[in-house]
Amino acid sequence: MPPKHKADEHASRINYLFQAAQQVVQSAPMLSQHYGEIITLISEKTVAKLDYTMKRSMCKKCKAILVPGVNMSYRLRKRKHRKCNPTMVITCKCCNEVKSLPTQPGRKLKAELTTATIS
Ligand SMILES: [Zn+2]
């Protein structure tokens, strides 16, 4: 059944491209990177927000889909102060772009907090 609204169509296209990019990231990394560029273009043109898991698994510089052990590495970097939590440093092996994400034990993202309730 085709989607009823344009937004649904864009979301399904982005989802399809993301899944396709994840499938071909090992065999055809350039194709995966191209899919990442298309995902970024669609989300920019349609002003659609990407899911946080999708956003975190894409390189901002080269638009590659990051898969641990294939084209990315991650490590925890300790902070100078003991009280501060370590940061997770993600390195893209395609373009050597580094991004760091804060970690906090027990902290959940906003998207994780919203729960579906069935009444
Ligand atoms: Zn990259």
Automatic annotation (TrEMBL):
Metal-binding in keyword set: yes
Which Pfam families does this entry report, sorted A to Z? Rpr2
Alphabetic keyword roster: Cytoplasm, Endonuclease, Hydrolase, Metal-binding, Nuclease, tRNA processing, Zinc
Q: Which GO terms describe its biological process?
A: tRNA 5'-leader removal
Keyword field contains Nuclease: yes
One cellular component term from this protein's GO annotations in UniProt: nucleolar ribonuclease P complex
- Domain of life of the source: Eukaryota
* Leader peptide range in chain numbering: none
What would you give as a GO molecular function for this chain, any one?
A: endonuclease activity
Record PANTHER family: RIBONUCLEASE P PROTEIN SUBUNIT P21, RIBONUCLEASE P SUBUNIT P21
The record's similarity note reads: Belongs to the eukaryotic/archaeal RNase P protein component 4 family.
Q: What protein am I looking at?
A: Ribonuclease P protein component 4
Which species is listed as the source?
Answer: Folsomia candida
